[in-house]
Amino acid sequence: MRVTNKMISDRVLFNIQTSLKRIAKLHDQLSSGYKVRYPSDDAVVAKRASDILTRKRELEQFQRSVDHVQTYVNAYDSALQTVSSITQRLRELLVRAANGTLSKAEREAIAEEIDKIKENLVEVANTRIGNEYIFSGYDVFSQPVENENGTWKISTLPASDKSRSILVLGHSIDYGVTASEVFELDSGKNVFQMLEEVSATLRSNLNETQISERVSNVFLKELSSFEERIIKTIGKVGGVSRFIDMVNSRVQDLDFFFTEYLSKERDADITELVTDLAMQQSVLEAALKSASRVLQATLVDFVR
């Protein structure tokens, strides 16, 4: 077969172009840090990387949901611990009020402190995170405890008075606590109404024996019921908190695993790339020197 100068020229230029493409690809991998960016690089790895990235985005959403729930659970725990501390002081006051030896001025002082306790409990019941009331169930923008005609009542509608939940990694987490779950008594009234009745009794014209009997037989029993409800709810919140910690740990482990796996699949070996790039640049330089000797000069090269 006859080899012409044009055939030699075309072949040399083709090889130089191929070498430039290899260098461009290595530069692209080196600058991006990825050996596989497009399906044309490696269809199987690209599909696998796409699936992993989708899974990582799901995990990021799960993480945001878990963080949101953890904020609420911490708020519930703080509020319930405050209520528990308040009930201890309330018990001290009721026990003192039941001893039957107090003067009217002393009963008035106890009644005033109980009124302050009631206001404090109302404030706790209407705790907010941002603009959301944490004890309002699903109706987070409505105040759960409101004053109606001088009496504090739980105003959450039955349809909204439910524990909120989220779905994370296939697990449904019920994390919400409602005002009725915490502040309603077994007798059907709420703790605010009970405290109003205590204050009214201490300020009434009943004799010491009648006041003592009412405090001992009614209010202290209702307080014990309220304390049991608080302890039960604190236990529930603690259980949710521990479960969230486990889910959060699982989400982080999965995210670490997918990140490591994704790195192994598509990340470039920088040391290997630098070595390959240096070799390809040497090959290109050698090809250019060889081409300068092989390609014949034409009249165009002498045109000024």
UniProtKB/TrEMBL annotation:
InterPro entries per the UniProt record, alphabetical: Flagell_FlgL, Flagellin, Flagellin_N
GO biological process annotation, one example: bacterial-type flagellum-dependent cell motility
Residue span, Flagellin N-terminal domain: 7-138
Gene3D superfamilies, A to Z: f41 fragment of flagellin, N-terminal domain
GO MF term set: structural molecule activity
Entry GO terms, CC: bacterial-type flagellum hook
Protein name listed in UniProt: Flagellar hook-associated protein 3
